[in-house]
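Hello, quick one for you while I still have it in my head. I'm working through a protein record and want to make sense of it properly. Would you mind checking whether the C-alpha cells look sensible for this chain? I owe you a coffee for this, so here goes:
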Amino acid sequence: MDLSGGGFRTSGLEAKIGERGGIPDTGGLHIAQYDLTNYRRNMNRHLSIIMDLFHLPKETRPLPRNAIIALTLFLYFLELIRTAWISDDSAITIRSVMNFTHGYGPTFNIDERVQAYTHPLWFLVISGFSIVLENVFFTTLLLSCSLSLAALWFLTTYYASNFWAGILASSALLLSKAYVDFSTSGLENPFSHVLLIALLALSLKCTKTGKSLHLVVFVLTASLLYLNRPDMLILIGPIFILVIIKNLHNRTTLARALAIGGLPVLLWTGFSVFYYGFPFPNTAYAKLGTGIPIVELGRQGIRYFLDSIRRDPVTLASITLGLMIGFRSCFFNKILASGILAYIVYIVSIGGCFMSGRLLTAPLFVAAAIIARSALVPRQLIMLAIGLGVLGGMNLNATLLSASSYNNPIIGADGVADERGFYFQRFGLLNERMQPLYYVPLWDVNERMVVIMCGGLGFSGIRGGPGVHLIDCCALADPLLARLPAKYTPYWRIGHFGRQLPTNYRESIEKNANLLTDQQTWAYYESIRKITRGPLWSLDRLWEIVRVNLGLVDKPSWDMYRNHVVPRSI
C-alpha cells in the first residue's frame, strides 16, 4: 500500500487493473475524482477471485449489498443486547429525570437548582419518552439501542460512497470496545453519533449547493450537537467554519440560517442562566476548576490513550487510519481529520476520562465516516480487513462474544476503569441482578436526610429516593464545591477531584441555613444559596446571578481549600 502523495495511490496490480478500466493511478488526485462505477466492477471481479479460491458455490456470489448491510445491522443488534448496561454517571441524569417527571424540577437534589447532567438534549429526550413509556431505565436503553442502530444504518446506506469501505468502517465500530461499551451505557454517545453523521451529510450538501433549507438544518444540527455534549464543538468546529466560509457570498441566507438554527442554544442558555443561575452545566465548573496544573492533566491524558491501546487496540488504530486517509485525500476529509486531531489534543489537555474509551467514540465515528467515503482499492481493503480482524480478534470477549458473565472491576494505577466491566454484573441488561430495569421505585419524599459521598452518586441517589440530599465531594452535583479547588494530593484520580467541605457545610444543608464559619466562604455561599434556593423571580436573585457570573463576588480562599486542612465542623 503506497500512502505517499496527495492521496491513496494505486501501484502494481492496481495500476494494471486501471489499464483495464478499473481505478487508474491517480497520481495524487482527490479521491472524489475516482470512477466509482469502474471501481465497483473491479471490486466484484476481486470478490469472484476470492470466491473461486475458497470454492464457494455460484449461488452465494456476490451477496446482495442489502443483505450484507442487514447482516451487519443484525450482528450489531445482537451485540447491543449482549452488552447493554447503565452506568452510574447516566444514573445521575436518570435521577434528575425522575425528579423532573415527578414534579420536583430538573435537578439532582430537589432542594437545590443544579444542572448535574452534562447533556441537556439527552436529558430532555429521556424525560419525554419516559413519560410515555413509564420506565426510565427501559426508556434509556431503548433510546440508546435505537439511536446506535440508526447511526450505523445511516453510515453504511446513505453516507458511504464506497460500499466495501463502508462495511470496513462499520466493522471497525462493531469491533471497537469503546464504541460497543458506549453504544448503550445510558450516556449521550449514541445521540452524538446520530447527530454527527447527519451533520456530515448536511455539510456535504452545504459546501456544494448552499441552499437555504440545508444551511438552516445544518446549523440546527450543530446546535443540537452542542446541547447534547458541548465539547463536540471542538470536533465539528473546522467543518462548521468551512461551511460558513463557503456560504459567505450569500450573507442574508447565512445570517438567517445562523439565527434560526442557533435558536435552541440561545433558548437553552437563557433558561439555564435563569433557572440554574449559570450558562454551563455544573459538571463543567467542577472538572475545569480543580487547580491541577495542565502539565499533570496532559500526562494523565497520555495515560488515557495508553489505556485504550492496551484494552482496545481497534479504536485508536481506526482513528489513526481515518486521519491518514483524511489528510491524504480531498479537502473536505482534511477538514474532518483536523477536527479529529483538535479533539484528541483537547482530550489530552483535560486528562482524558476515568471511563476507558468514553471520549474516543465520537472521533472514532468521524474517522469511520472518512473511511466510508474513501476509494481504497480492493487490495488495500483486504489488507486493512485482515489487520482489523487480527486486532478485533484480540478483544472479541468484550465485543461480539461478550456474555452475561463479563466482569472487570479492577481500576488500574492510572485511575482509568473498564466502566462496563465494573458495573455490568449489577446493571447489565442480561444480568439477573439488573433490578432497576424491571422495577422503578416510588418517587415520593419520605424521610429527609443528608449523605456525603464521592463516586457511585447516581444509583445511590436513586436508591435513596428524592428525599435524600447527596453532598457530592467530587462536586459534580454541588454548586458551592464545584467552584472550590480540589484538595491537593499527588494521588488524584481523573474525574474524581475531591473537595474539602467548608466548616459546618453539612449542618447548613441539613438546616437549610448558612452556618459556615469562614467569612469569605460564608459570603460566597450566601450568593450561591440565593441563586440555587431563592425564589425564581426574585429581583435580588436575578441580580446575584449577574454578579456571580461576572466575577463581582469574591470567591473563598483558593489556597485554604487547595493546600490546607479545613475542619468539617466545629
